[in-house]
Amino acid sequence: MNTKYWTAFSSIEQLDATFIRRLYNYFGDIETAFNSNLNDLKQIEGLSVRRAENFIEKKKGVNPDKTLEDVLSRGIKILTYEDEKYPYMLRQISDSPMTLFYKGDLFSCNLERTVAFVGSRKASLAGKDSVKKVIRDLANTDICIVSGLAAGIDAVSHQAALENNLKTIGVIASGFDFTYPSANKWLYEKIEDGNGAVVSEYYPTFQPIKFRFPQRNRIVTGLSYGTVVAEAALKSGALISANLTLEQGRELMCIPGAINNVNTEGIYKLLKDGATMVTKGEDILNSLGWEVQLQKTDEPELDKSQQIIFDIIGIEPKGFDEIQAATQMDTEKLLICLTEMELSGLIKQSEGDRYTRA
Hints:
This protein is α/β, with parallel strands linked by helices.
């Protein structure tokens, strides 16, 4: 059973996917690769003696049977590079993960309709609303939303997928013994419970160390036919994902935002460099050449007073006093209008008496 040797390789923290692939390609069999000795490894052209010696030393304490047992006992499923079901798109990238650990139902997702959403952890309310709006446009289709289960845009993307009957894949930067950030535990559970899968290339005991996050990003983009970037500073993980998308030969798309937001500087640079602008779900379909039937939603009709209020509120929260000053409505009428609009799902309250579009 080869799976135990794949898990044995993955349990050695000092090894990366490139090293494991190199040995696998040379020996043509993962068991032979794992059981190789130093003389065998010295025959591999370009492999440094130091790396070979490090592998021989580290594997001494590894029991392949036990590594497999430890993974399976946690309720984690395993997918290896030599498995026929290994995702086609991920196999095409130069540094494919050799082993994928996952919880949930990865194959309930349509892996031929995957699109990644990435962006700032400290996203603005407007940025989050834009992502929700675009994903809502794709509701009830077989499109799968891929992201990194981090705070900010990632979390909003997964949540919007769940709210709109879409499958979603969360790629994490640690093993399954850790939930990062802990505030997203409910998202992990919701995704695993019939709504997609949480995926990691890391053995369960590996911690969410800083360098693993950019490593994780190549899997987010690698699983996807295209990546949508929503809010990204000029130096950010989202920009790393954008560059990975281009290196992998995938479609790069961006959601525009306020020009005075530091987290949109990276967005406008990407747009100027040729990324596709996305303001609605249809833009994603056009960019990827997908034919998917989108459902039109019936929006409530607004009377004159409600339309004025709706236009004033815009996408940034407005306080009651601000709205009243702009509309010149008396207090009672304005309260009635706001209440009716809330009940219709057009606006919502946030931060006390402040209102924003829903």
